[in-house]
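Email to the structure team, subject: HNH endonuclease model.

Hi all, the expression group asked for a predicted structure before they design truncation constructs. Nothing fancy, just the tokens so they can compare against earlier work. One-line instruction: predict HNH endonuclease, return tokens.
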Amino acid sequence: MIEQIPWLNEIVEAMKFFGGRASLSDIYIKIEESGRIDINRYTDWKAQIRKHIYLYSSDTEVFKGDPGDRSDLFYATKGKRKGYWGLRGFEPSDNNVELTEDDLGFVEGKIKLRQHICRERNPKVIQRAKEKFKQEHNGRLYCEICGFDFYKTYGELGEDFIEGHHTLPVSQLKQGQVTKIEDIALVCSNCHRMLHRRRPWLSKEKLNELLNTKREF
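Reply from the structure team: attached below.
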């Protein structure tokens, strides 16, 4: 942290909790829940959160530093004035993992979902799944369903890119059951979305079957 500013510290900690990206409403909830700042002292405590984000983001007009310097802590994840913010340079650890599309639909709400995921999911498992796949496929990464290769299509921009799909929904994880490499499917963005088009989720084998059937016509 560049300065010991209570509001700034709380915002950073809230964003870490939510995996490096969060909506303003999520940040409000987390800071209120933490209780480390007496929000009752402020007429509009939520305005304090917005002010500190704006002051420390080069995506706003009130930022006083230089883009990319130590004071440039936050970025707008969905464009300006959308209310969604990210923490620059965030790296997942064992205590904070990023919410993915695989985690949507968890009925207990984002706070409990985050606590559940942090307890049951290893944030490094997708990276290890990618490394294992590359070792088995001559250094290549491609979609396990349709074969799409980001590097072959986009060159350097697509190098080492693939999405990790959790084949076991977080709602089905039991306490103490951790995500293993075998639970991760490496897929392209399109196939990842299609896996989620139905409830319960399609398996990669079923989606591959549908894809091959379509190709026959």
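The beta strands are 21-23, 74-76, 84-87, 163-166, 184-187. The CA atoms of residues 91 and 182 lie 23 Å apart. Ping us if the truncation boundaries need rechecking.
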